[in-house]
Amino acid sequence: MVEEAKSNNRDKKLEADSQIEAEQLLLVLPNLLSILFGKTISPDVRQMISNFTEMALPKTTAFFGEVEEIKTTEDKPRQFIALNKVSSVFIRSIIPDVPEDKSALDYLIENLEPKTTVPPAGYLAETSYIEYRRLLSEIAQEVCSKITFTKTQEYLDSVYSAHEDILSTGQSVVTKLPIQHKVLNKARMRFTKKATESHIKIYDELAGQFEKGVAIVAGLLELLHGQSPEYLNIRKRGLANNLKKVEQSGYSILASNFDKLIRNAIAHKSYVFNPTKKTVQFSDSLSGHTRELTYREIAAITKELSALVLALNQLPTIISIEQLRDFKEMARRLEEQEPNFNGLTESL
């Protein structure tokens, strides 16, 4: 019954999305692609694409003329089918190796999905990485089944425009992850002060990335509760408020494995090593609380936070893939409704 209800919700949402104007959806796809491929499409190029100009995609000039005509009509299904064709051309312009007999959207999705999943090998196998991934996929599916395409993208756009950080975070993860992975994946019979200093440094780097990631989740939860979140406003509320929102949801594990006391102590250099006991005492000047952890425990919480940040960093792409699936499903339904409109329905 629950699965049937979810399916019905997505069906209703897809019907609503089918009424979105072609121009809006066309702007969504370039945003998705630029994000998914780590590229920034300049505003003027995006504008050229949205206006169907010859400069943007020369090979589709004749088709653009047909689309311009369709845009002046009230026939939204025909608009959407036209948009579907343009999207295929757009994808193929970025991914030149799409087989001619292959759907461009299917090919895109198939090639993106493996990139969002890191096999739980090495230290990741000791963490809750798979559970984090499962919960984030669940959030993405729930958002895409209940929230309209445009509303979801409006929020994601606020994320990307509000922080160049989303790109800097991605670049930071790409450049630092191999170094962090090497340190965290090293098999240790004993834990030294030097190794623990490395773990503390990594925890500090991960904490900043986590703060951005958990804010994105908090915003998605607001979307699901009928609000219209703005990423900058969510960030301004601060880490504590965003943690509380996630902790009070059904996805609390995404917040509960982050230690605020440790993070604050590291940020303010308020920790002291005890080489004899092989422990570190962390002090949070804000709360007045202290916590003592062994070198081994510090390694464990750093590995756990690394797994969580890795999963959170994949969330926007997971959502984008779900959106692309919906985009294709909407096109399929509309093609079925417009069997005689063959001029604009060549395979995607």
Can you give a write-up of this model?
With 348 residues, the protein is mostly helical. It has one domain (2-344). The chain is 67% helix and 4% strand. It is built from 15 helices and three strands. The longest helix is centred in the C-terminal third of the chain and has 43 residues, at 295-337. It is elongated. Residues 52-60, 165-171 and 340-348 have low confidence and may be disordered.
Blueprint of the fold:
Elements: H1 2-17, H2 22-36, H3 43-50, H4 61-71, H5 76-94, H6 104-112, H7 129-146, H8 149-162, H9 165-184, H10 193-224, H11 231-236, H12 239-247, H13 253-256, H14 260-267, E1 271-274, E2 279-283, E3 290-294, H15 295-337
Antiparallel strand pairs: 1-2, 2-3
Helix pairs in contact: 1-7, 2-3, 2-5, 2-8, 2-15, 4-5, 5-15, 6-15, 7-10, 7-15, 8-10, 9-10, 9-15, 10-12, 10-15
Short summary:
With 348 residues, the chain is mainly alpha-helical. It is built from 15 helices and 3 strands. The chain has one domain (2-344).
What structural category characterises the helix and strand content? mainly alpha
In sequence order, what are the helices and strands, one letter per element?
HHHHHHHHHHHHHHEEEH
Count of the domains:
1
Number of strands: 3
Quaternary structure state of the chains depicted: single chain
**What are the low-pLDDT stretches, counting only 5+ consecutive residues below 50?**
52-60, 165-171, 340-348
| Average residue pLDDT | 76
Largest sheet: 3 strands, antiparallel
Beta-strand residue percentage: under 5%
